[in-house]
Each structure stands twice: as structure tokens, then as C-alpha cells.
Amino acid sequence: RNKLSIAIDGPAAAGKSTVAKIIAEHYAYIYIDTGAMYRALTYKAIQANINLHDEDAVADILSNIHIELKPNEEGQIVLVNGEDVTEVIRTNEVTNQVSIVAMHPKVRREMLVRQRQLAADGGVVMDGRDIGTHVLPNAELKIFLKASVEERALRRYEENKLKGFDTDLDKLKQEIANRDKLDSEREIAPLKKAEDAIEIDTTSLTIEGVVRKIEDYIEERL
Ligand code: C5P
């Protein structure tokens, strides 16, 4: 059987990582969460106390960090220069600033090189914003997941509740919309459906339903 490269793009909190992880496991493919790479850089840049709008300063930090994505039972752990940052890259502080870091052309150029290296042998499910358009333009399957902002905020809200903390639904909605706007309007590699991507609106679908649809497309290509 062919080892496919699968690109899954879409706006914030559309369920990309959840379905990407499941699919990668089913096919014994490598799961690559490119958002985690931008988050890891953002975390280190905040820690270094630099101005996140300063492209050279941010790019300099990136050149000094080694980011590893390692599979484990829960999906994946993220290491930066050996430090486990899996949890800390999900804080609001990082989430609400990552789109600034991700705007810089020098940062994106370097991330693109690293992401292509990770995907070089095929058999990958990569999720992000620009995978189908820039990182893996030749991927055998490109999926663009979308859902209404209300639905995405609600999913995050429920997820947070399960983890034991209460969040303000309206604030979540606003933060998600704001991140989508920054990601869609940036100059380099904005969030955009690739010409040849298959769009799936997940608003009224279950996780299993989305996985099933994508796996039907995979089976057609194996
Ligand atoms: O996927 P996740 O929400 O973790 O991504 C965090 C942020 O990283 C996005 O909002 C975006 O600014 C940036 N990103 C990107 N290109 C990617 C993946 C993520 O610009 N391929």
C-alpha cells in the first residue's frame, strides 16, 4: 500500500488535531502538529521577554531551538531543547499571541523547511493552516475542515469544562474569531483552502463522522 501524505488545514478549533491523531493511529502514520511548533516558538519567545513583533528577534530564537514532536499514548508530546512543553504551549497567553509570531516571513520560511523534513518519508498526517497550500503542495489528500465559530467556541468550552475550568463562551468566540482573522489576513501563507482540497463542514458532524469521511477518501487513494 502507498504511504500517503495527508494535509489537514482549517481555522482554529475546527477539530483538526483530534481527527488527525485518530487517522494517524489507524494507518500507523506519523502525526505532525505544525501549530504546536509555532506555539513552542511563541512560548520560548515570551520566556525570553522579547517583543513578539520583532521579526529578527523571534527568528533568532527559532534558530536556537530544536523542536521535537514525539508520539505517546495521548497523541504527542512536544519537546523544546529537551524540555517538555506539551502543556504550557496551550495556555491562553500563548494561544492569544501565537498568530503574531506566525506572521513573520523568516519564521515561516524556517518552519517550512523543518516541516518538510519531518514529512520527507511520507506516511504522514500533518495539520495546520498552510499545509495543503505551501508545506505539502503535492500531498495525495488535502482536507479543509471548517465549522461555525459558535460551534468551535462551544467545543472548546466543553473541552475546558471537562478539564475542570470554566471559561466565558463569548470571550472564547471572540478569541477564536480574532485568531482566524490574523491567520487569514497575513501576507505569507495565510489560512486558505487549497484549490484541490476537499472541504468538510464539521458543524453538525461527530468526530467519528469526520474521521469516517476522511478515511473513505484515504481508501480511494491507497
Ligand atoms: O493549530 P493551532 O491552533 O495549535 O495553531 C496555533 C497557531 O499557529 C495558529 O493560530 C497560527 O497562527 C499558527 N499556525 C500557522 N501555520 C500552521 C499552523 C499553525 O500559522 N501551519
Automatic annotation (TrEMBL):
Gene behind the chain: cmk
Location within or outside the cell: Cytoplasm
Primary location recorded for the protein, binned into one broad class: cytoplasm
Catalysed reaction, written as an equation: dCMP + ATP = dCDP + ADP; CMP + ATP = CDP + ADP
Alphabetical list of Pfam families matching this protein: Cytidylate_kin
Enzyme class (EC, first level): transferase
UniProt cross-references to PANTHER family, sorted A to Z: CYTIDYLATE KINASE, CYTIDYLATE KINASE/PANTOATE-BETA-ALANINE LIGASE
A molecular function GO annotation: kinase activity
Its EC number(s): 2.7.4.25
Keyword Transferase: yes
Transmembrane segments: none
HAMAP family: Cytidyl_kinase_type1
UniProt keyword list: ATP-binding, Cytoplasm, Kinase, Nucleotide-binding, Transferase
Organism annotation: Metabacillus niabensis
Protein name: Cytidylate kinase
UniProt record similarity statement: Belongs to the cytidylate kinase family. Type 1 subfamily.
Domain Cytidylate kinase: 6-219
Residue positions binding ATP: G10, P11, A12, A13, A14, G15, K16, S17, T18
